[in-house]
Amino acid sequence: MQRDQAKKLMEQTIPNKNLQKHMLACEACMRALAARFGEDVEAWGLAGLLHDLDYDQTVSDFGNHGRITAKMLEGTDVPAVIIHAIQAHPGHVAAESTMDFALYAVDPITGLIVAAALMHPTKKLASVDVGFVMKRYKEKRFAAGANREQIATCDRLGLGLEDFTGACLAAMQGISGELGL
Question: Are the C-beta atoms of residues 16 and 56 closer than 8 Å to each other?
Answer without folding.
Answer: yes
